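We emphasize that the prediction below concerns an isolated chain of 127 residues; any contacts that depend on oligomerization or on bound cofactors are therefore not represented. The input was used exactly as deposited, without trimming of termini.
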Amino acid sequence: MWKSPHAQTILPFAKRYPSLASALLRTWDDLSLAQDWKNLEVVDLPECGCAVIKGVPKNKKEMALVLPMNMALPVTMAQLSQLFSALGSEFGVDGPHTVYLGIVEKDSSVVYYVLREGIVSPLEVPE
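Result of the prediction step, given as a token string:
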């Protein structure tokens, strides 16, 4: 089916969330092969009907989370709010307040955007 070396890791989550299957695989491959993230694992978030990829970015010490997304699938503010609630349940009250959106383009490239919970003052936003 898939030729990626990571397909067996992704397959259970791809079956659970078929609309996100290709985004999950492409994002995992990009993070592990091109971005050189370490200790990757998939975290299932059934409360919001998705899975995120957890790992440690290159030259960083703290873990980060990526929500794989397809460009064609619409996402609402309510769904993103639900994501942060699910992350709070999964990681505790002081769960992550920042998530990267890994948006898979039509050509299979992945573009990353930072999503933060709540309102962020301009002083906290890097230029």
